[in-house]
Amino acid sequence: MNKSGFYRQLCHILSEEQILCEEPMSRHTTFRVGGPADYFLMPSPEQAGDIISLCKEAQMPYQIIGNGSNLLVADRGVRGVVIAFAGPAGQIQVQDNRITAGAGALLSRVARSACQAGLSGLEFAAGIPGSVGGGVVMNAGAYGGELKDVLEWVSVLTADGHIVKLDCEELELSYRHSCIPEKGMTVLEAGFFLRPAPEEEIRARMEELRRRRMEKQPLEYASAGSTFKRPEGYFAGKLIMDAGLAGYTLGGAQVSARHCGFVINTGSATAADIIGLIRHVRQKVQEQSGVTLEMEVKCMGGF
After folding, report:
1. Integer distance in angstroms from the first to the last C-alpha of the chain?
2. Which residues are catalytic?
3. Alpha-carbon torsion (50, 54, 56, 61), positive or negative
4. What are the pLDDT digits (tens) for 75-87?
5. Cα gap 106→124, rounded to integer Å
């Protein structure tokens, strides 16, 4: 199937507003870098199965993203299709002690909804810029909390196109890991079970964590949060600082002097600058301490 034929088929499933061609991925990542995707699609959860089936039929490569908060896209962009859920995929519903949220809902919005309903357990997520879908895939966490602590179930689209509901225990959640990508599944919706608490207590905890983030993290710069996973028995930021890399710059990318665990875009960085700096940091830390840092940021496109 040629490109024009593929586009015509897309238009049978999606509206023109849901289809962006040659869309710069810099608009969809918190690093604010990345070249164009051939097709950037924003389906509802109900349309996702048909889109993926069409991609497979047309032998068109596709990738699914959340809010782009943990993603580094190559300067040359992404060939094929990038799928990002929007619209109904961002809905949030609260009932008793439970919250149901679409894959496209921001974790920060879900945390605020929980607070307003007097439900505790998601305070740690109030400052996480990612979406529910992406958060579940990587078992997002911060300040001692993880999604697996409050996640009850997820609705996923399986690799063979079926929608199934899985209990949290079936997702093999561990530190920044789930079995979802390994099994070719796509998160459509998630359910959380929380505990009642006074709203003022929840809000106070969220405000405390917000202050800690403001003090310790370079939030004024574009980044993807913590660049590296926490090595067992160490802190990535401390290892990087001990290697003498605080403030180290490559092009427009820099190791944050405020928090060495963050690689930031000072305003003019390219994806090549960022990945080059990440590789330099890994090499220097390995030489200095013998610890191999593992990237928490995911790469997309050819590097």
Report:
1. 27
2. 176, 226, 296
3. negative
4. 999 999 999 986 6
5. 13
